[in-house]
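Work package 3, deliverable 3.1, input record:
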Amino acid sequence: MSTREITVTVNGRKRTAHVEVRRTLADFLREDLGLTATHLGCEHGVCGACTVVVDGHTERSCTQLAVQADGREITTVEGLAAADGTLHPVQQALRDNHSFQCGFCTPGFVMSIYGMCEEKKAGRPVPCSREEIREELSGNICRCTGYQSIVDGAEAALAGAGTDTTGGQA
Amino acid sequence: MAGGSAISGLVGASVHRKEDRTILTGTGRYIDDVQERGMLHCHFLRSSVAHGRIVSIDASAAREVEGVVRVFTGADMSAITEDLSFAQPIPGLNSPSYPAIAHDVVRFVGEPVALVVAESRYIAEDAAGLIEIDIDPLDPVMSTTAGLAEGAPELFGEVVPGNVVHTDEQLFGDIEAAFSQADHVVEQSLDQHRWACNPMETRGGVATYETGSGQLTYEASTQTTHTLRFLLAGWIRHPIHQFRVTANNIGGGFGLKFSAYREDVAVCAAAKAIGGAVKWVEDRNEHLVAAGSAREEQLTLQAAVKADGTLLGLRVTMKLDAGAYPINPPATVYAGLVRTTLPGPYKLPAYQFRHHIVATNKASYISLRGPWAVETLVRERLMDKIAETCGISPVEVRTRNLITLDDQPTKMITNVTLEHVTAAETFQKLVEMVDLDEIRREQEAARKEGRLLGFGVGTFIEPAPGTQEFWAAVGFPFGSEPCRIRIEIDGKVTAFTPQTPHGQSHETTLSQLIADELGVGFDDIRIVYGDTDATPFSMLGTGGSRAATMASGAVVYGSRELRKRVLEIATHILEASVDDLDIADGVVSVKGAPGASVPMAQIAMGCWLAPDQMPPGTNTEMEFVANYDGEGGGFSQASHACWIEVDQDTGKIEIKRFLVVEDCGKMINPAVVEGQVIGGIAMGVGGMLLEHSAYSDDGQYLTATFMDYLMPSAPELPEIEIEHLEFESDKVVGSRGVGEGGTVLAPAALLNAIDDALAQVGRPRVTETPITPTRMLELLGVIEKE
Amino acid sequence: MKPPVFEYVSPASLDDAIAALSAPDAGDVKVLAGGQSFVPLLSLRLAQPSLVVDINRIDELATITEEGGVLTIGSLVRQRQAEHSDVVKKACPLMAEAIPFIGHTAIRNRGTIGGSIAHADPAAELPTVAACLDAELVARGPGGERTIPAAEFFTGFFTTALAEDEILTAVRVRAAGPATGAAYEEVARRHGDFAMVGVGAQVRLDGDVVAEARIALSGVDIAPVRASKAEAALTGRTVDDSVLEEAAQAAVAALSPSSDLHGSAAYRKHVAGVLIRKTVATAAARARENR
C-alpha cells in the first residue's frame, strides 16, 4: 500500500496526514479530517455535490487524489460561516430564498455560488441573467427543487457580492 | 372559507426554514457522515448476468486480503437470515420470497451475490474483485410482452406462473351500454419507459451491534423508521424490543426509501454476526443498477364519447413491468392506485380496468413520487384526443366533463366520494389566465417563420392524503397519525413525529403550527423525528404527501390539549376564566391586563417538579400523544399549462413557459409549497425528456452512471409560475399535501404540448416515452426510425 | 466506486516523468493530468494501472506562448485558463469558442488542454479542434521529442499515436490570420454533456471567396472526423445557402456514425448537416468582419 505525507491548508488550518495515494480528495476531507459537509453524490464528476474551492477555484474533490492537494489551500462549506455561527452572505442569500430542500446537494451549490461571487469580487466576468446563472450552475445536480429557488438565491448572492464587508471569514 | 380552521399567525407565512442553518453550513448527519467506533465498511458484489443459475462461488482469495473482516456468500447469509417476504393476503398475488444475497438463481443485473466487510470501502472493493463466481446463464425476460408470451422462461417457476404477479379486471357501471351509445370510440395507447427516483443521497445504513447488551441500532437513510424496524427484525431474527432504527438527515427519497431492502437485511445481519458497527453506502453506480426504477407501464384506453365530447365510458388495460423482486408496497397497490384515480375529476358513468403485473429480469419496480401518475398522463392525453375527434378545444372537452364544486358531494365511478374538490375551479382559473385564441394566432405566425410551438393543459386530483374510501378501493390502509408533544420544564416545546422528513420542511411547518396553537416562540420548538425509541408508531413515515394534513392535524390537536391544560392551571393562578386568557411568546396573560400574567415556564416547572402543589383537579401532565384521523381526508388539485418550442433541426424541446394553478387548501408555508410544486414538475419534465433506466435486450443495464442516466440540470428546466387558490374545507386542518402532484401532472401538460406541436404539422401523436431529440425528429418525419 | 491500488509518482520535471514512464518495471502506466475523465475511470475501476505518473507539478507544461505565427499551448494548461486567455482568443478563436462546451466551470478549472486531447474521447471538443486546425501534437519520450500531426494522432476510440512511454507536452497551431473566422457548435442532451454531434469550422476568405475551409466533427465516428468533401465544396466559392447545403450534404454522405441511447445514427447524420451549415455560415460571417 503506497502512502504519502501531505500538508494541506483546509479552511485556514494546516493539516498534515499520511494518505494512501489512491485516496480521493473528497474521502480525505470527509473521512480523515471529518469534514463531512463535502458530499459524494456520484463519485464520477457529474453531480457537483463534492465541489470545493482549491487555490481560489471551484473544483470537484471526487475527481482528484488527496496526494495532489499537497501544498494547496482548500475551502469547504465548513469554512464559510463565521465562528459565532453567522452565515456567510452567500449562505444567508440562499436561506432567504428557501433555496434548498433535503440539503444533500447543498454544499456543492454553496461552493459553486461562493466561487461565482469570489470571481465577481476579483473583477472577472460572472453570469448576470437568470439564464446565465442556470448555465453556470449546470454542473450541480439537485433532485428536490427544480433549481428555481437556487437561481433566486444565487441571483441575490451575486447582487450582494462585492458590496458587503461583513460576513464569513473565508 | 370555513370557520373551523385553527390556523393564524406564523401559519401562512414563508417563514425561514429551521432546516437551512444545518444544511447550509454542512453540519447535517447524512448516512455517509456517520462514523461509529471501529466501524467497518461494506461492498456488495453484484451479478453481471440478468438471469442465471449460480454454479459456484469462491471467495477464498477475497478472504485473504489484508483488512477484510468477513465475506458473506448467499449461503453464508441465508444461514443467519430469513428470506425477505412481502406476501400479503391479497387474492391472486404471487409474491415470491427471496434471500438477502442470491445463492441459487440471479434474476437481474445488479442482484447481490456476495457481501464483503472490510476496514475500508477501498479494501472491500479490492476483495470483491477477487471473488470468482460462475453463473450458468438462462434466457432473460426483458419486457412484459416477452414475459407473457407462450413458453416464456419463468423467473420463479410455479411461484409466479407465467410470470404473472397479479392480474385482475374490475367493472364499474354498465360499460357495454356506454359503448353502444357512443358516437365516437376514441383510442389511445402509451408505452412509458423506466425511470428512477435517484435521490442525491443513495440508499445506505449503519448497523451497530452491542455484543454485551444485545442491542442493535440501524441508522438508515429511510422514509419510514418503524416499518423498517418491524420488517427487518423478523428477517434478521432479532428481538424487536432490542432493535432501534434511526434516521437523521436524509438526502431525498421520492418513494424509493419507503421499502426495506435486501441490503438492509444483509448489513444488519453482518453487524450482528461480526459484533460491531458496519456501514453500507450505496454508490451511484450500484444505485442506478440495483436500487430499482419506476413507471414502466403500458396502457391502452378506449373511450366511449358522445358527439359533444361527453364521456360515457372507459376501458383501460395496463401492463406493469414489475422487475424481478417484489418490495413494499405490493405491486397490486400501484395497480389499485392507477385504477382508482384514473377517472380523476371527471364525470364517468362506466369504467372497466384490467391489469397484468409481470415479472421480468430487471431491478424492482419501485414507488416514485406519485406512483399512480400514469393515470393522469393517459387520461389527460385522452381528453385532448377526444377534443380533436369531436372538433372542440382542449378547454371545452374538460369543462364539459369536469366535476365542479356544485356537483359535490358526488361519487367517482370507483366508489370514492369527492367533496371540496376544486380541480374544475383550478382549471377555470387557468383558462382565465390564458388566451387560447392568442396562443393559436402566435402558433400560426411562428409556423410562417418556420418555428413550431406547442401548447398543452391538464388537470387532476391528488390523493394527498386521500380518504378512507379511496385507500380501501386501492387496497392499502389509511392509518391515523400520532404526535407526542411535550412542554419542557422551561416552557419550551418538543414534538415527536413518526414522519421522517427528507426535504419537505416538516421541522419548519410543524413548528409554525405549534407556535400558533400554543403561543410559544418558533425558535422554542424542536421537532424530533427518525428514532423508533422516541417517536410514536406509524407504518407510513413520510410518504404519500400525508404530512400536510395528517402530521399537521396531530400537532394541532396535541397543542390544543396541552394549551387547555396550561390555561386551566393558569385560571387558578391568575384568577381569571379560560376565555379571558391568552398565550403569547410563552406567557399566559389576562386579556386587556398585561400585568396579570404567568410564564408558561413557571407552570411547566411546577407541573414537572411539584405536581402535588399545582391547583387541585388540574391535569399536570405536560406531555400528550395526539392521534389525528384526518377528519375524513381529502384531495389536492391543480391544473397545468405548458408552452413549448420544438427545434425542428435538432428535435430539442424547450419549455418556454409553465403555469400552475394549484389548490392544496391553506398553505402553512407558501415557500415550502412552491418548492414542492416546482421540484415535482422538474422531476416530471426530467422523466419525460431526459431520464431513462435502460436495459439492452440481453438484460445488461445501460445507464449505470450519471453520464448516461441524465438528471435534469438548471438550464433544462423552465421558470415556473404558480397561482394558489387556497380553497378551504370546513375541517380543522384545511391543508392538503402537495409533494407529488407536480410530478404527476407535468408530464401530461408537456406531452399534450408536444402532441399539439406535432398536430400542427400533420404528424402523429406520441405513443412512447422518453421524448428524446431522436424520437422527436422521428415523430416529425425528419429522420427515419431505426 | 473507489480507485484500485496503484503506485504513484509526481515528478517535478518532464525528464523525471518520462523516466518514470519508461522504467523497465513500470508495468501498466497511466499519465494523470487534470483527471476529470481519468479519476472517474479509476473510481469505476475501468482503469487499473500499476503506476500513475502525475504531471501536475511540471510547471513547464503550463504555459501559453505565441511566436512566429505559431500558438503553443502547454498540455497542462487548464481549460479555464485557455478559455480566458486573450492570446488564445486571438490566435485560436476556434479553441476559445469550443472550450465553454466542455463540462462545467469546476471541470474546466481542473481539466487540461493536453489531457482532453490525449484522452481522445471522440465526442470531446478539443480533439475536434485539433483535427480541424491540423494541430501539431508535441510528444516527448525517452528518445526525445517528436511532433505528430493531428490527422495521425487520433487513431481510434480513446486511442492515440502516443507511445506508452510518451507524454503529450504541447499543442501547436498556426495562429489565425486576418480574414479568418471560426465557430463551434454542438448538440448534447444537456448543457455540458459530451456532444451527440459537435462541429468546429474555420474559414479564411479571399475577398468574398473561401480561400480555406476547415471543418471537423465530433460524435460521429471512433475519432474526430474532418469533413474534407465539404471543405472542398466550399473552397473557391462564395458562401451562400446553396453552397452551404451542398457542403453539408457532401459531408453527411461520407459519415457512418453508430447509434446509442442518446442519439440514433440517422439523428447524428442529420444534426451533423445542420451544424455544418450553421458553423460555416457563422465562421464565414466572422471572417468577413475580420477582413
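The longest helix of chain C spans residues 265-289.
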